[in-house]
Specification:
The chain is of the alpha/beta class. It has four domains: 113 residues, no CATH class; 87 residues, Beta Barrel (OB fold (Dihydrolipoamide Acetyltransferase, E2P)); 194 residues, 3-Layer(aba) Sandwich (Rossmann fold); 158 residues, P-loop containing nucleotide triphosphate hydrolases (Rossmann fold). It has 25 helices and 21 strands. The strands form four sheets. It has a seven-stranded parallel β-sheet with strand order 11-12-10-13-14-9-15. It has a six-stranded parallel β-sheet with strand order 16-21-20-17-19-18, sandwiched between helices. Strand 3 and strand 4 form a beta hairpin. Helix 10 packs parallel to helix 11. The two termini are 39 Å apart. The C terminus is likely disordered. The structure holds adenosine-5'-diphosphate and magnesium ion. Magnesium ion binds next to helix 11.
């Protein structure tokens, strides 16, 4: 078969010389199936074997080619037996050290012999040393020429050596002469954005010339690397935009508020909505009247009053004759919503449903019937709401709280859920973990976004202090004082491992010891291992003021709302990420009293740990904290493990390459407008058959 016309993305790796089934299996582990895959598998770093470094110019922890004459060569019996060679050139001396060596090897390394070596210089007992360098004896006056190009080092897997990987890459580059690798960026766009061609970039990156800027390459900031990162980011962005187009092609029920009911609802509230709540509610209301499904992300810092905005949207759906599903990530938060929505909506004659994983079979059946018949108009619950056997009569709106815990895949599966009469429900996604703009563009470009940028009036900012465990007594005294003044406090226990069982035990022990020290104060305990009823009772007692100090695991992270609590102690805050700390701290500062958060750390702190606590002490704005979190931990951590998979880039790095995003956005719009036929190809090249992009 002639392979001349087959493009590289369809040419299997087995066409490369030396690739049989065994090697193909190893390449498969690296995700390399086609010649194009091999080309896109870029070096992780480079070695510079293009020049000889004078010994005096050697830098520790860098690889270099060196040349010199052997001045001494002896077997040394120190802690380990080793062969030690002193090598000298006109500028200095280094040591070559071999722990494994043969007699024949030793015999060749005679004093006076000239060597050329390659290896990494490290600081050792006798100054700079090379351990087991590659070396060759230079005899006569015809040394082998040095490499003309930088030597790539590829990300590899077991059983795949670097020479092997290099040989494959060289062959793959060679294939470019006969097989097309389609350039998918139109030339006009490339010229406008100063981007080189794909082929040019790939050729360069697999074998950079000797004058290439190595530091730039190592940092991933070389223009040719950015050319590839750009295309990859573009692919992700386009895929989300196309997903959004698909959604816009679907039909949704048109929901309109009933002005009378709205008025009665607002009159019943103990406060008036903030300007931000009103503005955002209007944005949502406008979406709901459309016949295409709303897909809107509602971002608002902890305590900004997202629940009210959700309730207004829910009311609009219900008065239009549709059901609403409200999903929370934890049982405690779901309970809280049931409480709030119940208090707000039941007086208007609206019936609530309730579904979590912990219902008895009988109760569950009952609830399911209510949802299927449409009797339950607003269903509150956890993931359980979206299990397969849950059927809604007329689902018109889905509200997901604390979105950062749900990934794109889940988002898609929910969209499918409520389809009914060919109508898709609207979706409102609420998050209290502000999503840095850079991430929002790569992970949420399929959503519209509303931001509540104002807190309800009368809040006083939380003062945060960082205190060592060694001063725990002072902190306990502070709790006693606050409670004596009629305030309430949280004491949050954290654990290194994410085991709710261990965390529960730790919280129990802490609660017991605090009960002893704080005799006279009422100490409550909540953790994830308690029965729903117990948890609910404790939370209610805390809310009613019957408990002074609530000891808890991080289960109280989201949603819990007790305005009289004005002091929070977080034990070992260094174990938590910034977003989680911010969430926790948001439990206080909800009333008029000045609130405090004590970060009670265990010393010694790592550099990162200290940095995180400093950020918490200095900042209270969730958006600022989110940006810092992204900088410190990277996108996978910031979005939560569930979403890490959605942001797995081959080459791009959303933090490092964030300055490319405006170009990506612009490029995507232009392509959709002027070259729609290229978009699918770009997506396919970078994302393959990622299920996220399948039809929904
Ligand atoms: P979050 O955005 O964190 O979900 P919540 O919806 O739980 O915030 O609201 C936090 C607290 O602020 C609740 O006690 C809520 O009743 C109260 N609240 C909400 N909106 C207002 C407002 N406009 N004025 C005063 N208090 C408000
Ligand atoms: Mg909330």
């Amino acid at each position: 078969m002639s392979t001349a016309v087959i493009s590289l993305e369809r040419l299997p790796v087995t066409v490369l010389k030396g690739v049989g089934p065994k090697l193909a299996a190893k390449l498969d582990k690296l995700g390399l199936h086609t010649v194009q895959d091999v080309l896109f598998h870029l070096p992780a770093r480079y070695l510079d074997r293009t020049r000889v470094t004078p010994l005096a110019a050697l830098q520790p922890n860098t690889s270099a080619v060196i040349e010199g004459e052997i001045r001494a060569c002896d077997i040394v019996y120190a802690r380990r037996r080793s062969l030690v060679c002193r090598l000298q050139d006109g500028t200095g001396t280094v040591t070559l050290r071999f722990f494994h060596f043969s007699a024949a090897q030793k015999d060749k390394l005679l004093v006076g012999t000239r060597l050329r070596c390659f290896g990494e210089a490290r600081r050792g007992a006798s100054g700079l040393e090379f351990y087991h360098p590659e070396y060759e004896v230079l005899d006569g006056d015809t040394p082998r020429p040095l490499e003309a190009r930088l030597t790539p080092v590829y990300p590899a897997t077991e059983g795949l050596t670097q020479p092997r990987m290099r040989a494959l890459a060289t062959q793959a580059i060679g294939c470019l002469d006969q097989h097309p690798l389609t350039e998918l960026l139109p030339e006009s766009l490339r010229r406008e954005l100063h981007q080189v061609s794909l082929v040019e970039a790939l050729r360069y990156l697999h074998a950079p010339p000797s004058d290439a800027r190595v530091e730039q390459l190592l940092a991933g900031e070389h223009p040719y690397q950015r050319r590839l990162a750009f295309e990859e980011l573009l692919a992700h962005h386009l895929s989300l935009l196309l997903l959004r187009r698909q959604t816009q092609a679907e039909r949704a029920p048109q929901l309109r508020p009933d002005p009378d009911v709205m008025r009665r609802f607002l009159q019943g509230l103990p406060f008036t909505p903030t300007g931000a709540q009103e503005r955002v509610s209007a944005e949502i209301a406008a979406d709901l009247t459309q016949s295409t499904p709303m897909l809107r992300l509602l971002q608002g810092d902890v305590g900004s009053g997202k629940t009210l905005v959700a309730a207004l949207a829910a009311l609009t759906a219900v008065t239009s004759g549709f059901q609403v599903a409200i999903m929370a990530p934890t049982e405690i938060l779901a309970e809280q919503h049931r409480h709030n929505f119940g208090a707000w909506l039941e007086p208007l004659g609206i019936q609530l449903g309730w579904l979590t994983g912990r219902l008895s079979a009988g109760r569950r059946r009952q609830e399911l019937e209510q949802l299927a018949s449409g009797a339950a108009q607003v269903a509150v619950g956890t993931h359980a709401l979206f299990q397969e056997d849950v059927i809604f009569a007329r689902l018109g709106l889905i509200i997901i709280d604390e979105q950062h815990r749900f990934g794109v895949h889940q988002r898609l599966s929910l969209r499918q859920k409520g389809a009914h009469d060919g109508l898709r429900p609207h979706q409102l996604i609420m998050t209290a973990t502000p999503i840095p703009r850079t991430l929002a563009m790569s992970a949420y470009a399929d959503l519209d976004s509303s931001v509540i940028d104002e807190l309800p009036p009368g809040r006083t900012p939380v003062t945060t202090v960082v205190i060592s465990q060694q001063r725990r007594d002072q902190v306990v005294a502070r709790v006693r004082e606050a409670c004596a003044q009629g305030r309430q406090a949280y004491w949050v226990c954290t654990l290194i491992e994410e085991s709710e069982t261990l965390a529960a035990q730790a919280a129990e022990v802490t609660a017991e010891s605090l009960r002893e020290t704080l005799g006279g104060l009422k100490v409550g305990l909540v953790h994830g291992r308690l029965k729903g009823k117990e948890k609910e009772a404790t939370m209610k007692a805390f809310k009613d003021g019957a408990i002074d100090l609530l000891v808890a695991t991080t289960v109280i992270e989201v949603g819990v709302d007790v305005p009289n609590a004005s002091l929070m102690i977080i034990e070992n805050p260094e174990r938590l990420g910034l977003a989680q700390l911010h969430q926790l701290r948001g439990r206080v500062g909800r009333g008029a009293a000045a609130s405090h958060c004590v970060l009670l750390y265990g010393s010694p702190l790592s550099r990162h740990g200290r940095e995180r606590l400093r950020i918490m002490r200095e900042h209270s704005d969730g958006f600022v904290i989110a940006e810092e979190d992204l900088r410190l931990r990277g996108p996978g951590e910031v979005l939560g493990t569930r979403q890490t998979g959605d942001l797995q880039f081959k080459i791009a790095d959303v933090v490092r390459d964030s300055d490319l995003l405006p170009q990506v956005q612009h490029g995507a719009q232009r392509l959709l407008r002027e070259h729609p036929e290229l978009c699918q190809n770009i997506i396919h090249r970078w994302l393959g058959d990622n299920p996220r992009y399948l039809q929904v």
